[in-house]
Amino acid sequence: MTSATGGKIFQFQDLKFSPDALFEVKPECLQPSPAPIVVDNGSFQTRAGWACSGAEFSCPSMLFRSVAARSRGAARSETQVGNDIPNLEPLRWLLKSQFDRNVVVNFEIQELMLDYIFVHLGIGTQGHVEHPLVLTEAPCNPLHCRQMMSELLFECYGVPQVAYGVDGLFSFYSNNTQRGLKPPHTGLVITSGYHCSHVLPFISGRLDAFNCKRINIGGSHTAAYMQRLLQLKYPAHQAAITPSRMEELLHHHCYVAVDYQQELEKWRSAEFYEEEVHRMQLPFSGKVAGVFASVEERQDKRVQQLRRLEELNNRHREEKLQQDQERLDTLLAVQELLEEGAVEQFHRRLMELNMDSTEELQSYIHKLSLSVEQHRLARAEIIELEQPMDEGDGVNQIEADLGDESTEPEKAGNIQPVFNMAEYHQLFVGTERLRAPEVLFRPSLIGEEQMGLIETLQFVLEQYSAEQQAMLAENVFLTGGNLLYPGVKERVERELLAMRPFQSHFKVSLASQPALDAWFGARDWALRNPVGSEGWISRQDYEEKGGEYLTEHWASNIFIPMRISKPTQRANEVSLSSTEQSQDVNTATSLDIDVVPDSDGGTLGALMSQ
């Protein structure tokens, strides 16, 4: 849709979510053994499905927002999860997530998410889930968080096997397989999610966790920045500029500038602005005062106003006539006193009326008599004129009296432009289209004192030798739902060209489906690695080695167990000796004896206090 001035007009979709369907477990998922359930536990969206061969299992069965809404004091059964919430905005103050940045910390909400997944996938076994589970986790996930997750899965749900993997590495593996690259893979994975972004070096088929870097900038920050820009620009529409609409703007209308400063210079041109600005139409009510009115409506309104003025004039004349009549009666009563011979009383009344002589009294009586007579004659004429006229004739007479006086305003009303309510409710999104995604590369725009994505990429590369840098630069991979902007691949290529040595080679590739490839990669891994092979954690492993235990594979984190140092024999002896000494001191104090300790920790003697 295009306006008359050339700008593009778009409508906000304001999508409403519908509840997920309740599926039934297919026979393929049960025979010959229970099929694994693959869950991409994202901070923005959760994706769940089956790791089975077949076209019907090639896509996730469930996609829903990773939020739950439950008011304070409400029962667990009253909690709304994911797509059960049709519109997030009215309940945004109640929304809770299991994530703190990209790490799961609220396991009560995580349990609600898993309940939602298992119920809608059709798992009806009582007391346990008989299917293995493949679950994504954050890079360098804290051991405590993995321990709590394993405890939830094994103790609460009784799953037989669990496998953990990094979402960005699953996506990296899936796309490398599609491109025909044979393992072991080497490359640099750049992921950007809802809360955080990561730069992950992947060398010879394993994650180099010691040189991974995280940036606390993600899609939520770009959406908040877009909301702040538009609310400052349109303070009258602050209530309509909601976070959900800002996310829609980011997904469908924003792009990453290859050269940010040069792109801003282009927007200074009026022609470029009119051609590239996106006008977002806000909803509004069409029937508003001040919008176009027909000629008949304006004439009816004018007739009603004239009738109202005429009624007011008639009422004012009646009141004036009544006042003049009362004044005339009073003066005539004073004149009768003179005619009756009550001279003293007559002069007293003249003084009360502020009159000096009889001539002045006669003059007032004459003027009031003429005024009363004129009012009566005018009222009689009006009554005579109104009697033979019906309502339609009166309207026609008033319209005829308007004559040429009403013709000119009508013509002017047809020519003059009237206030356009639709245009008033439009958001002109111009430079905001590239300023919001630029937060990924320049966190200082929102006041964050940390490196941008390209600076972090350069810092990670500098940790390796020249040969390793060349190998990593040959396979720079972009994935994550926050890297769906047009131009992001070209921007990274331009920055790498300026960063890398002269005539060095590099290659940047974007995931085929940045938001879903993590689930596809986890599904492919589950199909290629049967349950019980390398990468799976059994319940026996959980009970023997602890909840933080991780069986490593090419897409997993590095397992670094917690080492709790045991106290040495010398430390035990010193601790025991200090305990005995404290007991001796306490006993002597109760007996009022001064104890002198020797150098070996024993008691040299006791001196009785005086």
Question: Keywords for this structure?
Answer:
610 residues, alpha+beta, six-stranded mixed β-sheet, 14% strand, elongated
Structure in a nutshell:
Helices cover 44% and strands 14% of the residues.
- Global structural class: alpha+beta
- Given the structure, what is the number of helices? 20
Strand order across the largest sheet: 4-3-2-10-11-20
Q: Estimate the helix proportion, in percent.
A: 40-55%
Question: Which runs of at least 5 residues are low in confidence (pLDDT < 50)?
Answer: 402-416, 587-610
Biggest sheet descriptor = 6 strands, mixed
Euclidean distance between termini CA atoms: 104 Å
How many strand elements?
A: 22
Give the overall silhouette: elongated
CA-based gyration radius: 44 Å
Task: Describe the 3D structure.
The chain has 610 residues and is an alpha+beta fold. The protein is built from 20 helices and 22 strands. A six-stranded mixed β-sheet has the order 4-3-2-10-11-20, sandwiched between helices. Strand 10, helix 2 (143-157) and strand 11 form a beta-alpha-beta unit. Helix 8 (295-339) runs antiparallel to helix 9 and helix 8 packs antiparallel against helix 10 (358-386). The chain starts with 7 loop residues before the first strand and ends with a strand.
